[in-house]
Amino acid sequence: MVELLGSILLIIFEVICCKNFFESFAKIRHHGWINILQLVLLSVCVCLLGFELINCFSIKQVLMIVVIALFMHWHVRISIPKSFILAMLYMGILLAVDYFAFVINSEFFSVDIKGENTTGSMLVILFGKSILFLCVLLVQKQFGNQLTDMMVDSEWLKFLFFPVFSIGIIAAMLSTFQYVETTKQANVLFVIAFGVVGMDVIVFYLINDIMKREMLIHENKIFQLQVKNQTAMYRSISENFDKQKKKTHEYKNQMMCIESLLSRKQYEELEQYVQEIYGRLNKELDAINTNNVIVNAVLNTKYQEFVEKKILFVFRVNDLSNLKIGDEDIVIILANLLNNATEACEKCIGKRIIKLKFVKENDNIVIAVKNSYEHAQEFKNGERRTTKTVDAEEHGIGIKNVIHVVEKYGGSYIIQDDNNEFFFSIVIPD
């Protein structure tokens, strides 16, 4: 009974490792009860193959690869050929770690795995499965998804302590197994070993759930920041429209006044009045016109802000009337890049300059922002950190929002930071 239960638990553990291995290379197709059903059916099929073909090693391995490839193709978004390749790779790793475990046992522990010593053989197999779990974790670290990318190297080292510790515990059990006198003691060691391996799986999924929650919180912050930037820009656009309505009303009154002065032939007063109107118009006209309402609204709003904050704004634009980028995405790119540039320039004591290039050329949309700064740049884990104290997190999220939009349209970007100038360049196919 113990042998049967142990074999079933080992197969379930192998299926879990297989699931995590495939999820390192592709996204899950289904969630919820379908996901559970897939794993249950795969476990049943592997159990049947293992028990029915116990004496046909080669045939069993071939059928295992076929079954795993088909079920994993159902489980993750991957093509049939790639699924077969990954299935063969996984089975290769599985056989390699099992062989390694038996070699280690024969060289260092000499636990009898033949005859009726089922507990000893189970411990050796568990030793191999612990190594397999560690290998799968390392594969996820190298090729993993967004969740694993959120963990920095130091966090991964702390997490890997658990499987490494489990391997050490089982190795210690194997080294002392020859001193076990009763079957009861052997079974206790077997239960402890299984418990240690099971705890590794529980800790893995616990951390995975925590990372999912953190990612949802992070995505919510990104959404809130997008709403904040878009609301600010759309408010500016709305204010511009309100101003335009007021100008239209003033224009009617001005025309009535001009008509009155003409009718009374007060030409000197009329000339003076027209000159006053012309002077006000020169101040009120938009400085930037790209033939795109959203781009004009954003750039002219920022232009007025730069004038008030005494920041030199150098720009190059052309006809952007038929942009394929959505209005919301334009706001995300320009608002984040120009807001970050503004905050950097405000801290400058000397030169305060922002350069913008937003053009359509050679079937590409080019957006580049360069700004001066005087604060030191910090780096952590290979990524640039901002020295802002209040909105540091928003700054990082804002840059990630821009990168997300660029990738959404199949574009590319370059970030450079040298000679007291920060440069962010984007190229998107038009």
Low-confidence stretches: 379-394
Q: Give the DSSP E fraction (strand runs of 2 or more residues).
A: 5-15%
The main pleated sheet reads as: 5 strands, mixed
Helix percentage: 55-70%
| Net shape | elongated
Report Rg: 33 Å
Q: Which class do the helix and strand fractions yield?
A: alpha+beta
- Number of DSSP helical runs: 12
Strands of the widest sheet, in order across it, are 1-2-3-7-6
What kind of oligomer do you see? single chain
Q: Mean pLDDT across all residues, rounded?
A: 80
Q: Could you give the count of β-strands?
A: 7
- Euclidean distance between termini CA atoms: 67 Å
Helix-strand pattern: HHHHHHHHHHEHEEEEHEE
Describe this structure in words.
Residues 379-394 have low confidence and may be disordered. The protein is 69% helix and 11% strand. The chain has helices spanning 2-23, 33-52, 57-75, 80-109, 118-143, 146-149, 153-176, 183-263, 267-284, 293-308, 327-346, 392-408, and strands at 312-317, 353-361, 364-372, 378-380, 383-385, 412-418, 421-429. The chain is built from twelve helices and seven strands. Helix 3 packs across helix 4 and helix 8 (183-263) crosses helix 10 (293-308). It is α+β, with helices and mostly antiparallel strands. The relative contact order is 0.06. Strand 2 (353-361) and strand 3 form a beta hairpin. The strands form two sheets. A five-stranded mixed beta sheet has the order 1-2-3-7-6, covered by helices on one side. The two termini are 67 Å apart. The radius of gyration is 33 Å and the shape is elongated.
